Amino acid sequence: MGAGISLSTSNKYDDDDGDGRPGLGDIPESCISRLLMNLDPPEICQLARVNRTFHRASSADFVWESKLPQSYKFLATKVFGQDNIIASMTKKDIYTNYVYPIASMLAPSGQICLFLSSKSFNITGIDDRRYWNYIPTEESRFKSVAYLQQMWWVEVVGELEFEFPVGSYTLFFRLQLGMASKRKGRRVCNVDQVHGWDIKPVRFQLSTSHGQRSHSESYLTGPGEWIHYRVGDFIVDRPNEPTKLKFSLAQIDCTHTKGGLCIDGAIICPTQFSHKILLF
């Protein structure tokens, strides 16, 4: 997730054509910044390599503030634990280091998608390497996934507090049966440890601090494929007010063991865009 996108803007510049004629370097920096406001972050970073003027224009605070969700201060405060630190940071630094890894704003609606790492979850038995391990992988936005070898009791719980823009949202777990790797440049998936998921379904649950609840059940299928399992929907109708979420997946029938499961994380996105989550 997110692979192939770089927010680096370092490169060599070519400010003019070397023959005395006007070049791109003669365009006023303020005009370039206004243009960049209308582009997506990867496009801004590509144009920042054109020349020094474009590079300076691409770092303007108002350019990157237009890419930040309305609740970015709330998000940054959650990351830092205090709100006075972000006052000394550029908007580009806030976006690149603390917003981009876990959130994307959907222009022009202003709504937001959140991406949650498996390391943010409370996973039963996660500290016992007989059962779980964190496996590095380029297939995750977070560069690692939680991998279950075998266990009788599987329970994963996530909690979040966030100022969502008003709207309807859907939460998904991103899961895969089997452990993928590369051999001679080709993707292969080891499914030797996959078992137990076809006996009983996994139960997904979601609740909010405003009393909304939903649950669903699903058998885990498609070994070797990343699949988004829908947990439930919730509605935000109170602007500028934090919503607390608690969500989980569980298969706690102890009559059989389960194994071979990769947990990348969870995605929260506007319901109207939920059919596009495979793009993230």
From TrEMBL:
Record's compositionally biased regions (Polar residues): 1-11
Provenance organism: Arachis hypogaea (Peanut)
Name under which the protein is recorded: F-box domain-containing protein
Superkingdom: Eukaryota
SUPFAM superfamilies reported in the protein's UniProt record: F-box domain (SSF81383)
Residues forming coiled coils: none
Region: Disordered, residue numbers: 1-22
Domain F-box, chain residue ranges per copy: 21-67
